């Protein structure tokens, strides 16, 4: 073996683009894992579709009688966001599995920074969650949802990605402070579910009681859903620019918080 | 004399009130097979975590391949390969993908990476199963793959933290013959811990015994046996560390947060 040469080439090739390569391989890993676990993929589609069918058709007539228009058109963006929210939080929390199955150690002793690990994982998880959102979107077309404009679909996908980023980062932050999966139910009931139900996914934000409105205004998902609603149904309540601005700052804050907590995590 | 490849001076590591490692000093020479022995909770894993940059020391200096583990983290990380006590492969990926992941993280260029992966996987006799998902591998196969992975970035030191735990005698034998072979042909420094004392007696050039966070003896297996006046290293070990059964988690690793990292900087 020509070891000397091997080492020399290793050193010269190790440079700036290694920063991106490490992020890329972490991202790729998340995608491979997603596409290989078909049962998870299909399983996590069941819930949004059930919500869409049951609520969309169930509350549709009342919603229309109240003069608020087509309920299916109204909740579909909320349902898409729901699919993204659950997948994103879950892929973030997966770090706990990685720690339990030891794989996290392999990444932690590698000569890459924790920031790179965090970025790679978060982008991977967010991509997976976005794909999940797009699949839910396609399924809603069969149920009867009609987007107002084809041209706005890329904007909708961009909003999906922002929602995915925010909640993958949140999942990572949560996973960094939890020791094991025991706390998972707690997170579902006190973080994920309230985030979803108080976001205006299922009901309009106009005329809500004060405290509920306050919570909805602090909920990142509110802006994500409003943005999606703007892009898909042309029915944004807050305005696309506000949505984008607020969502972007919340994504930034969550990614920073996630990175910070992740860097403090012990294995 | 050549500088030791691992230099540990007055290493202390505390977890809150508990002192897991208490003023430990030792050296490992280049090309040596060094066994680090001790009962459960003696401070073994904590020391290995510090040597491999997973934990920071509370006090003392640790140099690996000439680099400081706190200030030159990345240089230290390039210098060693490690096989952890528990499996650390991604079960959902294939054997080859696990190797590739490692190669990319360590910045091994693609052209070299692919040929090196092939060479190493042939070395541990897993090349014909490279495209299988790791989930289907036996414990011994996973261990072999981890050894191959640990060598991919051409480290100077290979850390093996109880690499043969839970494996059958055939596999254990197999793994140690790989390791000895690597030491002889490549001059790779081996640092390992084990509870199978006879393994240390058979292959280690030098041994250190740690107990209650302190090194209680070190030297060649022969020296340790002679000093204790017994025939086997296992008896010497029992003489040195007593016969009490230890609390598994006494070194506290894994349960404590890294407060330290914050205020050391």
Uncertain ranges of chain A? none
Strand content of chain B: 15-25%
Biggest sheet, spatial arrangement of strands of chain B = 6-7-8-3-9-10
- Which structural class best describes the helix and strand composition of chain B? alpha/beta
Residue share in β-strands of chain A: under 5%
Q: Count the helices of chain A. How many? A: 12
Number of domains of chain B: 1
Give a verbal description of the structure.
The complex is a heterodimer of chains A (267) and B (265). With 267 residues, chain A is mainly α. Chain A has one domain. In chain A, helix 7 crosses helix 12. With 265 residues, chain B is an alpha/beta fold. Chain B has one domain: P-loop containing nucleotide triphosphate hydrolases (Rossmann fold, 3-Layer(aba) Sandwich), CATH 3.40.50.300. Chain B is 38% helix and 23% strand. Chain B is built from 10 helices and 10 strands. In chain B, the strands form 2 sheets. In chain B, strands 6-7-8-3-9-10 form a 6-stranded mixed beta sheet, with helices on both faces. In chain B, strand 4 and strand 5 form a beta hairpin. Chain B is globular. The C terminus of chain B is likely disordered. At the A-B interface, helix 1, helix 2 and helix 6 of A face helix 2, helix 3 and helix 4 of B.
Summary?
The complex is a heterodimer of chains A (267) and B (265). Chain A has 267 residues and is mainly alpha-helical. Chain A is built from twelve helices and no strands.
